[in-house]
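Fold it.
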Amino acid sequence: MEGSLARRYKKVVWRTLVISNLALGAYMLARAGKKDTAAQNRKARAKQPSTLVATTATSVPEEPFFSPPIIEPVSDSS
């Protein structure tokens, strides 16, 4: 009886090991493919020429969006 019990668990263990190895292999292949496409996208972006913004001859001087706060000294005379 011990021999049949060991054989039965042996099948379950082997099946579990095979399935987990297949899943790990698929995960590693998918991850490697994802890294390759990311590297290709980076190379493609690096090859694209940057677009320059055309400036006009009559440009308006830039003003800050917010004026700096005006701090008035506190007088000590009460």
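Helices lie at 2-47.
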